[in-house]
Predict the structure.
Amino acid sequence: QKEVEQNSGPLSVPEGAIASLNCTYSDRVSQSFFWYRQYSGKSPELIMSIYSNGDKEDGRFTAQLNKASQYVSLLIRDSQPSDSATYLCAVNEGYSSASKIIFGSGTRLSIRP
Amino acid sequence: NAGVMQNPRHLVRRRGQEARLRCSPMKGHSHVYWYRQLPEEGLKFMVYLQKENIIDESGMPKERFSAEFPKEGPSILRIQQVVRGDSAAYFCASSSGTGVNTEAFFGQGTRLTVV
């Protein structure tokens, strides 16, 4: 059973600090990695995609990928109360368009003012 | 430029009835995923479809559940003889499916309540 693992949280971070969210995956052939944000009662929203080892930055968000360690993370700088949500790590488990995207169970992030 | 459209947004069914959930993908997208989410839980993969073809249905319960994505019209997730345990949010996502690095975008979901 291919898996994507996340710490369920809640992760509490003071406003203005850096929030660090982590994810591990079991299938070494995984090629594509995504972070989604889901507010309570809403649908998931794609916020970052990463495909190569290293860092990818977009505004206050930085995704980090280490395929050798099967580890992907999301850093949120200058955390804001509006960042409080559940963050879902997602992995395209294979190497073809027939491969499906599987999700971790999510980490609840709470930014305290 | 409509995104992924799901309807209905809320659906109430009595035990034993049928539920039909519809998903129209984003323009230009030919691949659709269906996921189920129970309260306070993560997204569970159900099925992955391309037009007129089921690519992966490994997450679908063996009985009562079926999915299709016809050449014309939306993708349909069908649940026959619903039970209380089917109450959940059902999300559809679409992608262009043109390569492994394709991103998937979600609809607003259908909240199914079985009474």
Q: What stands out?
A: Chain A touches chain B through 27 residues (CB under 8 Å).
